[in-house]
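In full, the data.
>
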Amino acid sequence: MFVSTVGVWSNIVEAVPGSTSLTGVGTNQICWGQGNYTSQQSSYYFEGISSASVSLDGSYFVLGTFVHHNYPVYGYSIRSATLQLTVTINGVEVSFNFQFDHNETPNDGVNGTCPQTPGFGPPCPDTVSINNSRSQETVIVDGKQYALCLAGFSQNNQVGGQFVTLENQANAVQLLGQFVEVK
C-alpha cells in the first residue's frame, strides 16, 4: 500500500502557561522561548513524506523528518507537544496523535556536568523523547484493524525512543513507524 504524511503541532504543554512566546501551533513548526543572545527561538519542525510503499507486516517505515532547533532561551520552555499526524493510506486520510516530551536542560549544568544528559558537558543539550508510541486511533485495511506505532527516531543507523540536541544546533532525525494489527 502507498502512504504519505503531513503533521501539525498541537496540545503544547508549557512549563508555565502563556510564558514561552509560543508560535506556530497548528502548523508543522512550533517555536518557543526568548532568544538569549540572538533572536532565535528553539523549535520543532516536522516534514512528512510525499509517497512510500509500506507493508502491513510490522516493518518499519519513515513517517517523516523531525528537526529540533535548540537555542539558548530565557524564561520558560515547553514540556511536551503533540504531533497530529495525517497519514494518507491508498488515498484515504487517517489522523493519529503522538505526544513528544521535551527536556529543556539548564545550559550551565551543575559543577561542570550535565546531570540530565550524562556524558555531556555544559552547555547542556536538550532531549526529545516519545511519550506514547502506540496510537489510540486505528485504521481498517483489507478488513483488519491496525494501530500506528512509533518505532523510534533513526539517526546514524541507530534507532531509539529519545534523541539529544546540542545547544546552538539543529538536529534532524527520521521518525519511524510501523502498522501493528490490533487483535
